[in-house]
Amino acid sequence: MIRVLLVDDQPLLRSGFRALLDVEDDIEVVAEAADGEEGVTLAIRYLPDVALVDIQMPVMDGVEATRRIAADPALARVHVVILTNYGLDEHVYNALRAGAAGFLVKDIEPGDFLHAVRVAARGDALLAPSITRKLINRYVTEPPHTRADTGLKWLTNRERETVALVARGLSNDEIADLMVISPMTAKTHINRAMAKLHARDRAQLVVLAYESGLVTPRNR
Fold first, then answer.
1. CA-CA distances (angstroms) from residue 155 to 118, 158, 176, 190, 195?
2. Which is nearest to 99 in space by CA: 207, 9, 195?
3. Which residues of 112-121 are buried (b: 16+ CB within 10 A; e: fewer)?
4. What is the pLDDT of residues 33-45, one digit of tens each?
5. 7 phi/psi in degrees, rounded to 5
6. Distance (Å, rounded) from C-alpha 162 to C-alpha 16?
7. Which region holds residue 8: left if phi is over 0, alpha if psi is between -120 and 50, else beta?
8. Domain HTH luxR-type, which positions (predicted)?
9. Whole-number Å distance between alpha carbons of 54 and 104
């Protein structure tokens, strides 16, 4: 059973999302919150698999709520998905940097919404290649000399290669085909890289890959 926490300051939207989720046999809404601070408190209490968090709320916004959830070792298995009206913007990018697994636009189709919740619960990032390109082109533009040391020196060559391919939006199967390895081996490389870089999920690997200079927009 996928346990979901809804965090949004608009009761009508929460009710709409809950109505969609409650009819699914494999999904359970365990709690609702009207602001980020309450959302963090309920995440600690209920330990959901997925927290659907609005980006703009009173008291505490979605970026800070994401940051607090990601910083708490007890909440390591909570996958935060940002809800936004506007698509990819600076607030969403900051949430991805803070540890969000991805984001959804609130006018998403119901079927796509349910699929996204299941994807997030598996620990996969909600970053399609088209979204990755927008993220790169708009927000990861610092010259190499200003980029932070993200720990890439601790990665093996194969791990660096898989991280670069993840940053280009490839799936495990696509990475395996390109590197001529099994999907399980590709997954192992990715998991080891995430552990060494202290990345919560693939979304953070994407951000780290570009911010470190491992991959740059012109490489695409």
1. 30, 8, 18, 10, 10
2. 207
3. ebbebbebbb
4. 999 999 999 999 9
5. -130, 100
6. 39
7. beta
8. 148-213
9. 10
Domains parsed from the chain with CATH numbers: 2-126 (3.40.50.2300), 145-212 (1.10.10.10)
Closest to 191 in 3D by CA, of 167, 169, 159:
159
The strands making up 79-84's β-sheet, listed across from edge to edge, are: 27-33, 2-7, 50-54, 79-84, 102-105
pLDDT value at residue 26: 96
Q: Burial, 151: exposed, middle or buried (Cβ in 10 Å; 0-12, 13-18, 19+)?
A: middle
Indicate the pLDDT class of residue 143, thresholds 50, 70 and 90: very low
What's the chain's Rg over C-alpha atoms? 17
What b/e readout covers 161-199, taking b as 16+ CB neighbours within 10 angstroms?
A: bbbbbbbbbbebeebbeebeeeeebbebbbebbbebbeb
Burial of 63 from C-beta contacts in 10 A (0-12 / 13-18 / 19+): buried
Cβ atoms < 10 Å from Cβ of 216: 16
Q: What would the pLDDT profile of 95-127 be if each residue is shown by its tens digit?
A: 888 888 888 888 888 998 999 899 889 877 666
Query: Residue 60 in contact with residue 95, Cβ under 8 Å?
Result: no
**pTM exceeds 0.85, yes or no:** no
